[in-house]
Every structure is written in C-alpha cells, then in structure tokens.
Amino acid sequence: MIPNSALTIEAKEYGRRLMSGCDEPMIFHCNYYNYWLQKNLLINAEFGMASAIRDAATVQGYQTAHALVDKAAVTTAEAVMAAAAVVYARQGFGTLNFTNTTAQGGLVTAPSSHYGQCLFSSCKGDFTQAQNLFDRGFAAGVAAAAFDLPAGSFSSELEACHSLGNKEGLFRLKRRPVPQNFFSACGPGLGSAKRKSPPPPWTETNVDEAAIHQALAGLDFSGNEEGLIPRFGVMLTDHFANFYNRISFHFLEVLEDTGLREVAEELLVEAGHRCAFNTFGGIMISPEWQAVVQPMCKTPEDWVHGIVAVINTFGWGTWRVHALTPERLVVHIYDDYESRGYIGMYGTASHPVNFLATGGAAGIMNLIYTGHISQAPVLDNDFYLRIFEAKDGYHATPTQSMAMGAPFTEIVVERQK
Amino acid sequence: MTKPSSAVVFVKKRNERCLNGLEFDYFLPTPLPLTLLADQLQNTYEHGLFRFDEHYGSLPVIRFVIQFVAEVRLGEREKQVTLIHRMSADTSRRRATELWLEQVLIDIFSGDESE
Q1: Is residue A198 part of a domain?
Q2: What percent of chain A has pLDDT over 70?
Q3: Do B19 and A118 touch (CB under 8 A)?
Q4: Domain check: are A98 and A224 in the same one?
C-alpha cells in the first residue's frame, strides 16, 4: 500500500489540481470523452496513434511510479508496482496485477479496466481493436520505474482485452534489448508570460459557485474496489492532463504533415462536443445537480453559470463567463490545461490549441438553449445529432489562446444564423 | 408511511445511458422511508454490505456497497432507488441482487412492513 499522504491530488491556483510528488496536472473526464477521443485518434491506422497513446501512457506510469520511489519512500520493485496499482485504481482506470512481473517482464492482468470495459456504452456494437492502450502503456512505465530502468525498457504485447470480449485484460511486458527513447513529461506545464489572475465569478446570477464547490468537495470521486468511478450517470476518470495533451497535439502534428490539420482540429473539437453532451449533460440531469445546483437556477443563464461552476472543479483551469445572452456566450479561461500543456511541451503556439474547451463551450449553449436540458431529455445519439447539427445551433470559436501568449483563453460561442 | 393500494410496488427502468445495463432505477409510489429501507437492506444482507453516508448539499444520501457486486443508492431522489451493478458481477449475480432489492421494496411498499 502507499502512505495516505502520498500522491494525493491537491488543489492549486486557477482551478488546477496536481498530483503531489510528481506535479502532474489531473483532470476529470468521462468514458464518453475517452471513447470519442480515442475513436477519432485511431481513425486511420497509418497515423500510428495506437503506439502514440501507449507511449503517452507509459510516461505517466513511469512518472507515477518514480514519484512513489522518490517522494513516498516505496522501495522494493514489488512494492512500487503494487502502490502504483493503488494509485491507478484510485484515479478510476481499473485494477492491475503485477504479481508476475520481473525485471525481464511478465504477464500483467487487468481484472477491471475503464478503457477495456467502460467505452462500450458509448458505442453500439463490438470493437474491432483492443481499447486498453492506456493500461498497457501505463503498466510498462510502472515496471520500468519499479526496476530502476529507463522509461522505454518494456514493450507491452496484447494478449486479451475486455473490449474484445475477454474476461480480463492481459498484456505481456517484454524487456527491450535497447530501451526506446521517450520524451520527458512536462509536469505542471506553463502559463503564458502575460498570464493573469481570474476575476471573481459573475455576480448577476442566482448561482453561488462557492456553495457548489463546497457541496461537491464532500463527495467521494475516487475509484471503487474495481478501480472505477460511477458518478453522474457516467464513468469518470481522474486523468493525466499531459496524457490528453500529448496524444491530441501529436495527432495534430501527424495530420499537419499530411495537410489535414483542419480535419484533426475538427475531430478534436468533436470529441469536446461529445464530452459536453455526455458529461455536462449527464451532470445536468443527475441527482447531484438536482440537489445542489438546480435549486439555485431560476433562468437558463443560471444553468450556464451552474455548469461553469461545476467545470471549475474538474482541474481544467478557471472558467469565467465574460458575456452571456441567449444568442452568445463569451468564456474566459484562465490557465486552461490545453494551453499549459502545449506551452510546457512545445513553447508558444502559432494557432489556438483549445479544442476541448471550444467543443465544451459550444456544448453548454447547445444543451441549455437548443436542447433544453432543464427538461431532462434522453441523452442519446439522436438527440446529440439534433442539437449539434441544428441550423440554429451554436458554434464556438477560440478568439484568443493562452498557448499563443494571451493572458487567458477566450472562446466565443454564437448562435448560427 | 402511506401504504399504496396498487399492486404495482415499483416501476423498474434500465438506465440506457449507463454501461450496457449496469444501472437500474426503481420508481416508487411514495417517498422513500429512508431509515426503514436502509435498515431492511442491512437486515436482509448477511455479509459484506458496507454503508456510506453522503450529502448532496443538504440532501442525505445513503450508498450501500457490496464489493465487486453492486451499489444501491437511497435518497438521491424522493421516490427512487438506484441500483448500479459492478462490472465484475456476472449475469446471475446481477439478477440475484435485483431480486434481493426488489423483495425488500415489495416487503416495504406492499404493506408487509410499516414505519
């Protein structure tokens, strides 16, 4: 086991959450976003994104296990792997068993798995390829750190995955003759040089953001005995922001090389739409919302402020409503995780990189004003298509990005004429 | 509590959003007798039922967890009980859990028990 205080998630300025010991920014996302992001990234095998996803997960596993050695004084390889599995389960990724893993590798089992089991609901029909890329990469990174080896010391070969109909995940770690070179993690990332503190929340609303935060702080958002987090009618993960950033920005690079940058951007924003629809939508019809937030909501605008207050607990940075009418929403985001990750990995960007935020902001308006989420509609695919493809639906544009050096990111959402 | 005269004790609805039939909502005719229901669940499950008390704002919610089997949430909504199976539970285990919960609901809401 790990000491209780080790690798806990701590609230930091500007709405960020960091895993202590390794300073990894942590953010909540649900099984729907994880499904749609992975589906879109794997759209063409020639892009090589399956290995990119595994590699990004390896870095996170390596960072986590290294932090256990360095900061939590976990010493033996067996203890490091067992402790890393505890962290993995706590974050909602599932369960891992490293009992048969040695410095030469071995068979890792995953009795339960967010990626292996929980993406089913987002997709009708069976998967044709295994979805547990994160699990495999993370386990390889943990083993490398546990045996004090370079991060890329193990490959992980698939033997079974829940998503292919198997009863458990199985993957074989194999020691590489020569470790694969790996990028280093960027830790908490960086803000822009002009970074500003967020203003207080909008006051002309019935919504009390502080009260919402206080109420949500009392709920348990850690993994259950299966290492899963069933909340708000979805399965949550308390995930590594750098994992999302690495795979999203790599996808962008790969498609830019083939002249398809705009397609990549559209796919990443679409994943944001799906996230908004399912996570925000799920939250806004959940018992938690109905008990805590809905009593404060007298107008549709209050619903916007309410969901923004909830978003500000996700670790995504601080969202502030700057302007709001039924026709238009302007959101300012201070220290958004996409910008921080981009600057930390690559330096200042030449384009906005706030794909999740763009899709999410459009989703808020589409759910509240087009979809009338206050009437608790059924959140199925037909409803998604109806509101996101409506002629008078909303479209979001990132008008400035902290990744490009701005003090904060600005997203403008407008009703289409 | 007011005893319902109808033979229909609850309406069971599968939550289509949640993970291929993992979650079922039971809609009841009258508000939940929270304490009675919690006691009955504890009395009728012999081993391994763990209780967690939470508050959604001022709303008290009781979560019962049977590890690797299921979670039952009481109090989230006035006339509703939610059952969420664990991924690990196989079909027969899930059915057995549903029957256990349903029998408790029948015992309470059909008038065999009173608060």
Answers
A1: no
A2: 97
A3: yes
A4: no
Chain A CB within 8 Å of residue B90 CB: no
| Record: contact A230-B18, CB cut-off 8 A | yes
Triad A222, A58, A191: Cα angle to 5°:
75
Nearest to A230 among B55, B57, B84 (CB): B84
A117 neighbourhood in chain B, CB within 8 Å: 19, 87
| Residue A9 falls inside a structural domain | no
Q: A358 and A300: one domain? A: yes
Q: Is any Cβ of chain B less than 8 angstroms from the Cβ of A217?
A: no
In A273-350, which ranges are E strands? 318-325, 328-334
Query: Which of A339, A65, A139, A309 minimizes the C-alpha distance to A208?
Result: A309
pLDDT in tens, A20-65: 888 999 999 999 999 999 999 999 999 999 999 999 999 999 999 9
The domain total for chain A is 2
What CATH number should be reported for the domain holding residue A100? 3.30.1380.20
Q: What is the pLDDT of residues A362-400, one digit of tens each?
A: 999 999 999 999 999 988 889 999 999 989 999 999 999
> Which phi and psi (to 5°) does residue B65 adopt?
-120, 130
Q: pLDDT tens digits for B31-82? A: 989 999 999 999 999 889 999 999 999 999 999 999 999 999 999 999 999 9
* A290 close contact with B: CB closer than 8 A: yes
> Which domain covers residue A165, as residue numbers?
42-180
Q: Which residue has the tokens 């990469």?
A: A137
- Same domain membership, residue A294 and residue A405: yes
Q: Please tell me if residue B39 touches chain A, with a CB cutoff of 8 Å.
A: no
Q: Which residues contact A203 (CB under 8 A, 6 or more apart)?
A: none
Q: What is the pTM of this model?
A: 0.94
What one-character-per-residue DSSP string does A85-100 give?
HHHHHHTTSEEEE-TT
